Fold this protein.
Amino acid sequence: MPEEIEKVVIVGSGPACWAAAIYAARAELQPLVFEGAVSEENRLAGTLPLGQLALTTEVENYPGFPAGDLSGYLADAIAEDRRRLMAPHKKEGVSGPELMELMRQQAVNFGARITTDDIVEVDFSSRPFRLTAFEGQVCTAHAVIVATGARANYLGLPSEDQYKNRGVSACAVCDGALPRFRNRPLAVVGGGDSAVEEADYLSKFASTVYMIHRRHELRASKIMQQRALKNPKIEVLWNTTLAEVLGNDKDGVTGVRLQSTVGEPDLVKDVSGVFLAIGHTPNTAFLKGKLELTEKKYIRWTTPARTYTSVEGVFAAGDVADAYYRQAITAAGSGCMAALDAERWLAAKGL
Ligand code: NAP
């Protein structure tokens, strides 16, 4: 039997992926989505299905979800088998995982097919394109939309690596409620919105949260800055960098040694957790040599206001190609654009 060629395969798991899947499904392209594998490796890397929003709490800035109790709506909208996997609704507007489940369900409702596996290899050198998944599934496709997002960065200190999962984390929401962090001083590294969000979240459990920031002003938006500066449990340590995570085999993290960026002496603080919030790296390792990437390894959009990449028929959407906006709403918007671009390209080619 001749091999079935997919019209469009979507690789990814966040808002860009699901928006692309909704639009592609409604355009009757029968999209096949590879949403990523549920594996320990992906958990540690922060690349599980549903993307980065699965690692957050409340989403206050996605239009259409003001504060309120969505219990009834979530129960109606999301399939029972998926609802069982979800944390209880907090009745305060939408959470990241809920928003992603809603998007995923919407794509399923319109006929998107989903494989819970990673694409580990692509061949864009001949047509149809060929994609290989971790478990060995191979598929061919006329068009591909890459929406694999980005993952949290670490500083790369040996001591940071030594204590990963024993007090060092890049996801407060995933790990912050663990007993080892309760009523203890904790540190968050970074000065952006993520750092403030993490510090604010951790302040619910911690005795004190030190924000370690290398400059004398936060990069975070004004409203987030206020949130940090007004929180009595958050103390910003200005002009400091993390030089070493201190600890031992028995207790894991016990402290941090901080260096001054303005010539002050080193500082040691007792903490039982260190949370990194210093930006992201795009998930493009599997595309090396296959698509043009930027210096920072994001996929390069080759045409203004289009989601085209360096290979005709391959489109990119969301944080994997966007180092600038990196919002759920912009990712979803570019997912929609990628699906429309793919649909029009396929039509122009008569595919
Ligand atoms: P970001 O805005 O790039 O901030 C990264 C922070 O980490 C900066 O303060 C940076 O310091 C610091 N940093 C980077 N590399 C470092 C290093 N090697 N050593 C020490 N510090 C380092 O990243 P983000 O906070 O993850 O935010 C990304 C995007 O998501 C932003 O557009 C943000 O607005 C958005 N976001 C929004 C929300 C929300 O609205 N609720 C929440 C989270 C994120 P410098 O400031 O000195 O460069």
About this structure: The mean pLDDT is 94. The chain has two domains: 5-152+280-348, 158-276. The pocket of NAP is lined by residues 61, 155, 190-195, 197, 214-215, 219, 221, 241, 277-279, 326 (CB under 6 Å).
